[in-house]
Amino acid sequence: MSSSGIIDLVPRSLRERWSSEGDYPDEPVYALFAKLVRDNPDRLAVLSYEKNITYGELRDKAMRLARGLKRAGIVPGDVVAYQLSNHWLCCAIDLAVAALGGIVAPFPPGRGKLDIQSLLRRCDARIVIVPDEFAGIDLCELIESLHPTLLSIRQLIVQGKERKGWTTVESMLHEEPLDEGALPLVDPDSPVRLLVSSGTESEPKLVAYSHNALLGGRGRFLQRITPEGAEFRGLYLVPLGSSFGSTATFGVLCWLGGSVVVLPKFDVKSAIDAIGRFRPNFILGVPTMFHRMADDNSLASIDKSSLHAVIVGGAVIDATTVMRCMEAFQCGFINLYGSADGVNCHNTLNDPLDMVLSSVGIPNPSICDIRLMNDRGEEVPPGEVGEIYARGPISPMQYVNAPELDERYRGPGGWVKTGDLGYLNAAGYLVLAGRKKDVIIRGGANISPVQIEGLVMKHPDVMTVACVPVPDEDLGQRVCLCVALKDAGKKFSLQEITEFLREQGLEINKLPEYLRFYRALPLTPAGKVDKKALADDAEGMIMSGQGS
Question: S-S: 390 plus which of 186, 343, 464, 487, CB 3.0-4.6 Å?
Answer without folding.
Answer: 343
